Amino acid sequence: MIELRDVHLTLPSAAGPVAILRGVDLSVEPGASVSVVGPSGSGKSSLMAIVGGIERPTSGTVRIDGTDLAGLDEDGLASFRLERVGILFQSFHLIPTMTALENVALPLELAGRQGAFAVARSLLGEVGLSERAAHYPGQLSGGEQQRVALARALVNRPRLLLADEPTGNLDGDTGRAVIDLVFAAAAARGTTLLLITHDPALAARCGRRMVMERGRLHEAAAVARPLELTAR
Amino acid sequence: MSRLSAWSLALRLAARDLRGTGSSFIVLLAALTLGVAIIAAVGILNRGVGTALSRDARVLLGGDVELEQANAPIAEADLARIVPPGAELGRVVETSTLATSASERSLAVSLKAVDGLYPLVGAVRLDPPLPLAEALRDRGAVVEPALLARLGMAVGDRVRVGEVMVRIAATLVREPDRVGGLFSLGPRMIVADATLEAARILQPGALARYEYRLALPEGIDAPGFVAELAQRFPDAGWRARSPRDVQPQVTRFTDRLATFLTLAGLTALLTGGLGIALTIETHLARRTATIATLKCLGASGAQVFRIYLGQVLLLAAAGTALGLVLGLLLPLLTRLLPEGTLPVAPDPGLYPMPLLLAAAAGLVTTFVFALWPLAIAREISPAGLFRALVAPPRRWPRRSCLALLAVAVLILAGIAIISVPQPGIGAWFVLTVAAAALLLWGLTRLILLGARRFGHKGGFALRLALANLHRPGSSSPRVIVGLGAGVTLLVAVAALAANLRREIADSLPTRAPALYLIDIQAPQRDTLAAILAEVPGARLEQLLPSLRARVVRIKGRPVEQVPIGSEVAWTVRRDRGLTYAATMPEGSELVAGAWWPADYAGPPLVSIDEEIARGYGVGIGDSLGFNVLGRLIEARIANIRREVDWSGGRLDFLFILDPATLQGAPHSFVASAGLPATEEPGLLDLLARRLPNVTPISLREIVARATELLARIELAVMAVAGVTLSGGVLALAGGILAARQRQRYETVVLKVLGARRAVLLRAFLVEYLVIGAAAAAVGGLLGSLAAWVVVDRVMHLPFSPAPFPLAGVLLLTVAAVLAVGAVSLWRLIGLPAAPVLREA
User: What DSSP string runs through B348-405?
Assistant: First the structure.
């Protein structure tokens, strides 16, 4: 499902170029769940942006679900995300001027699918928010907003779900409830899950654990120091 | 997804995204409403005038056909050949003369003598409501109310006209065949034919117009009849017109007015457009996260572009619709104007074309100004959602968007050209706007460069203000350009008016003669000299023979078939004055050919003005045909004089013939005289008694009328410039709203760091002061330049800077910007810090 070979990412900044990823290799089978932990600024989110076709690597190859992303232009990448990738953000990124239902239906509408609102309504039901369909993001709690975001990420039946610190802005209980939903939904659909997190307990729930450190990715077993320290 | 469903989705999402945006689009809506309303209202009014004219043309002409000849009646024999059997024929004579009240106050009047058939069509309305024939019986007269006011008289009083005393029987409420306008030398007086004859004003050669109105019998088509007359009498001294010819003559005036007002509306739309751009940019900046999210969810750049373009179009449609509604209502206000302000009362009606053009102007302007921020928003990277460290957003749109922008600008230019009744002026407007925009932008850049260079000097408030002028993404440059455009117009109008007023009211009387006299008969020349000798300080400056004639042939071809330059086209529309002279007039200068010998007695020769030569496309040796009192004179051009300089008030003629050719024709003389102001009433009195047929025209009177007219025009132009400035104020409002988010954050951070409110207020006020001063400087400079171009280069008058109006406009600008800024800052300064910091 995910094939990264020697991926580098260097970004310009006011203070000069910054090397963010320094030769990342990763191979993930379809249906697997993989967690990535690592300190802030280690390049976790950039890795996710590259896998989601949001960022282009400076060098290296990226194949997702059999597609070489280098061969796609901006709009090709957008279609690729629309059809195959769902993304869950730490800050939810719901559109504030749209209701929960409209937010969930949005990817289907962008894809021009019929019956977008019926599908969205059933997804909202799955995450337990049928009653809140007409509410705007500003009228929902953090946990509810993240559940709406999950429904939106899943509505297109993506083959790959990317979750960037999905519980980072939620309290413990709410976070657990949301993450249970994420794992259950991924398992039920056979969706590949790439989870970025600071939380070792959460990382441990994935089948495979990776660590990102200064732009390099390792299997968790290969890290010399205890995971708890690096992930803090 | 099909194109249609792609757009339907975009519009749906656009509408959703507009929820809760509330008042953010007030500037956009106001700018559009204002510009569209003016363009629509002016277009509707102009169409209304056009429709009313074609409906009332027959009434305005006074019949189906009008024949007009200068100076002498059309010979009875000719009339017998012209008038078809069964037609009704009425005659009207128009001239100017002096009316003197019992208290010896005199006033030049525009006299009209009518026969019993008048008016052949339409109706005269009088106050008190008498039939016209009854009012004119027994030396009766009806007059415009202005005459009574200026002579201090009332209905029933008597006034002397030439050699008779006439009784004012009523005032004129409506004269059906008079087209209103801005300027006429004296108020109207209507008398009967017999009264005019008894007054003995019309001596041979006196300046008068004889108008014959024909009501044609059924079955004769007026335009066809006029065309036939032109063929049968190609060199006739009279001119025939059908109702179809009335409209172009009046619309020359209304078209010019409409062109000017439409361009003012477009200017308001364009300066307001900067406010539109700022509003949209601010809105899209707030939507950065939404756009990045949409892209993360799989929306393509094109979809994002469509969604936000759809949003802009929805808003533009709302603003345009508001503007159209207002544009439909505004013309109703013209009913409040005094009668005669417009040439005819506009025909109320729904005219689709002006509405369409106004709507197109509004929508395309919005598109042009929105395109750049939309194209930049299209490029927002979805990666922005993951971290702050991203490459700065692209400053330049992609090529396809730039091409689209170029096409939109061309379409807007096209709309500007076709939406005005005079497309040539529209084209000039487009070029001027382009040049002015470049100049405004260049000057603004210079100011920003200065701010960057010297921005580190001065106190905290000034440093902050100067830094905000040139920081990346600052809205200040566009605010300066928008306001600067408005100030440019105001300064230009103020400086132009000050120069014209100085020229007319102050300079002209010092070098021009105090009095002009027309219709002097040859034997009266000695009487005139004697009268002038009796008045202390009076002296005769010029005394020239004067005839009226029509130019009927150019190089042997009828004028209708010769292409004539628009700047001299007026010289062939009606009869013109000409004179004869043995020697070259004092102060003239030849540019080609030679003056004829003083005793020349050969075939007719003519001397013409340089501009006429250019406009007619003629040179030395070519011939011009004049119809002088029914006689065709073919004269060869002997010489060409330098363009006549009218600014000194000297009597001069475009056409001067050799004396032998014209001496025998009946003609009168015109004269100019210098005299101390205190002696003017005495001289007028002497003239009225001893030369009653001579009409004196006082320069003082002309200056008073011209100053009055100037004041009216100035007020109108100022009002229009004010509307344009309001476009600039909208740009300012857009800029203030755009800066608000930044100022809010800056205020809070500075407060947290310990800045007192007074310090913050001062810092932001200095920022507005700098913006206001920059706009005033840019506008003052460009406006003065524009006034100089018009006064010195176009009008060829001496230009002098007008410091007081200039200072007034500039101070007003700075004060207005400061006031608007202060109001917007008041709430900002009082904001508690914590909630803002939590948001950030």
Answer: P---HHHHHHHHHHHHHHHHHHHHHHHHHHHT--GGGGT-S--PPPPSS--HHHHHHH
Interface test with B, best of A10, A87, A91 (most B CBs within 10 A): A87
Q: Where would I find the beta strands (DSSP E) of chain A?
A: 2-11, 18-28, 33-37, 59-64, 67-68, 85-88, 160-164, 192-196, 208-213, 216-219
Compute the distance between CA of residue B520 and CA of residue B165 in angstroms, rounded to an integer. Answer: 21
B822 and B772 both lie in a single domain: yes
- Tell me: do B285 and B390 sit in the same domain: yes
Judge: A164–B386 Cβ closer than 8 Å, yes or no: yes
Please determine, for residue A138, whether its predicted confidence score (pLDDT) is greater than 90: no
Q: Where are the domains of chain A?
A: 2-93+155-231
Locate the chain B residue with the closest alpha carbon to A113. B1
Q: Which CATH architecture has domain A2-93+155-231?
A: 3-Layer(aba) Sandwich (3.40)
SS (H, E, C) B590-615: EEEECCCCCCCCCCCEEEEEHHHHHH
Q: Do B297 and A81 touch (CB under 8 A)?
A: yes
pLDDT of residue A120: 93
**pLDDT digits 0-9 by tens, B582-638:** 999 888 889 999 999 999 989 999 999 998 999 999 999 999 999 887 788 999 999
Domain boundary among B395, B421, B447: B421
Q: Is the pLDDT of residue A74 over 60?
A: yes
Inter-chain contact A45–B381, Cβ cutoff 8 Å?
A: no
- Residues in B closer than 8 angstroms to A52, CB to CB, are 296
Same domain, B746 and B638: no
Shortest Cα–Cα distance, B454 to chain A (Å):
24
Q: What's chain B's average pLDDT? A: 83
Other CB atoms within a 10 A radius of the CB of residue B364 amount to 20
Its domain, for residue B469, covers 436-514+698-840
| Separation in Å, CA of A54 to nearest CA in chain B | 6
Q: Are B620 and B639 in contact (CB under 8 A)?
A: yes
Residues B231 and B276 in one domain: no
For Cα atoms B191, B192, B198, give the angle at the middle one, nearest 5 degrees: 95
B282 neighbors B741 (Cβ within 8 angstroms): yes
Q: What is the ipTM of this complex?
A: 0.76
C-beta separation of B778 from B487 below 8 A: yes
Domain end call among B213, B241, B269: B241
Chain A residue numbers with beta carbons less than 8 Å from the beta carbon of B287 are none
Q: Are strands B655-657 and B239-241 parallel, antiparallel or unpaired?
A: unpaired
State whether B296 and A164 contact (CB < 8 Å).
no
**Rounded to whole angstroms, how far apart are CA atoms B656 and B578?**
6
A165 touches chain B (CB under 8 A): no
Residue of A nearest to B15 (CA): A97
Indicate yes or no: pTM above 0.90: no
Asked if B303 lies within 8 A of A87 by C-beta distance, the reply is no
Between chains, do A97 and B20 touch, taking CB under 8 Å as contact?
A: yes
**Is the confidence at residue A231, as pLDDT, over 60?**
no
| Contact predicate B532/B540, CB 8 Å | yes
- Give the pLDDT of residue A196: 92
In a domain, B560, yes or no: yes
Q: Is A156 helix (H, G, I), strand (E, B) or coil?
A: coil
Number of inter-chain CB pairs under 8 A, A vs B: 99
The angle subtended at Cα B95 by Cα B252 and Cα B214, nearest 5°, is 70
From the list B363, B364, B375, B369, the residue with the least C-alpha distance to B401 is B375
pLDDT digits (tens, 9 = 90+) for B23-75: 778 878 888 898 899 889 888 888 888 788 778 888 888 889 999 887 788 88
3-state secondary structure (DSSP) of residue B168: strand
CB contact under 8 A, A78 and B390: no
Give B20's contacts in chain A (Cβ within 8 Å).
Answer: 96-97
